[in-house]
UniProtKB/TrEMBL annotation:
It is found in: Cell inner membrane; Cell membrane. The chain crosses the membrane at residues 12-30, 42-59, 71-88. It is a multi-pass membrane protein. GO terms for cellular component: plasma membrane. It comes from the Bacteria. Residues 19-140 form the MgtC/SapB/SrpB/YhiD N-terminal domain. The keyword Cell division does not apply. This is Protein MgtC. The keyword Isomerase does not apply. Keywords: Cell inner membrane, Cell membrane, Membrane, Transmembrane, Transmembrane helix. Pfam families: MgtC. Belongs to the MgtC/SapB family.
Amino acid sequence: MAALTSFNPDELLNTFISLFIAILLGTLIGAERQYRQRNAGLRTNALVALGASAFVDLGMRLMGNQGATQVLAYVASGVGFLGAGVILKEGMNIRGLNTAATIWCSAVTGAFAGADHPAEAALLCAFVLAGNTFLRPLVNMIERAPIDESQTEATFEIRVTTDDGSRDAVREIVEERLEAAKYPALDIRESEREEGVEIVAKLAATSVEAKELDAIVDALGKLDSVAHATWTSRASD
């Protein structure tokens, strides 16, 4: 009986409009993800937006703006766990970050709709679609741009593999070669390997010439006591 006495046609219509807008906008966002064959596609984004809208709408009906604010905090954290489920680690690569961020935006879109802000919900939906569509060519252009090592600040390492009996002599030669090339080593460490001893010289984060490092490595690799020599780099934080 309580359900019948509390029935309000106006509130029901308001809820219907909020949920309809949420699932419509969530479907638009999800359609783009589905078209690109991502893990979280049309139905996932539509349901995330719908669920967020329902939670916020219920919070507003029970406790007004304060209830909606409290529910929003839980929606934000809950969607974070949901988004983590679509992030995959494949070796050194991580996939799904953009899809997880899109799910988060779908939830906010639904929350706007549930809080009776349909214009803001539509605006956010448009921005999400624009970000996933029009920023893609820019990302591709940046990723395809060649990297000039001389203009990149990075940490470089010279790695030399030798036998246990020659480690001291090889280490001294590595230091001499680096000092002659004006690339002083910040640190030199040694580690045992199945094939022998690996000497790793860490260089300062500075601009270097790849050809110069190639020359150092080639010279070290020609030594009779050196089994292998190479250099690696990584971007500085």
